[in-house]
Amino acid sequence: ATYKLLLLPGDGIGPEVMAGVQTVLAALAETGLAHFETEADLVGGSAIDAHGKPLSNATLAKADAADAILLGAVGGPKWNGVAYEIRPEAGLLRLRKDLGLFANLRPAICYPALADASALKRELVEGLDIMIVRELTGGVYFGEPKEITTLPDGSKRAVDTQVYTTAEIERIAHVAFDLAGKRSGRVASAEKHNVMKSGVLWKEVVTAVHARHYAGIELEHVLADNCAMQLVRRPKQFDVLVTDNLFGDVLSDVAAMLTGSLGMLPSASLGAVDARGTRKALYEPVHGSAPDIAGQDKANPIAMIGSLAMCLRYSFGLGEAADLVDGAITAALAGGARTADIAGDGSKVLGTRAMAETIAAE
Ligand code: NAI
Ligand code: MG
Question: Concatenated DSSP letters for 52-88?
Answer without folding.
Answer: SSSS-HHHHHHHHHSSEEEEEE---GGGTTS-GGGSH
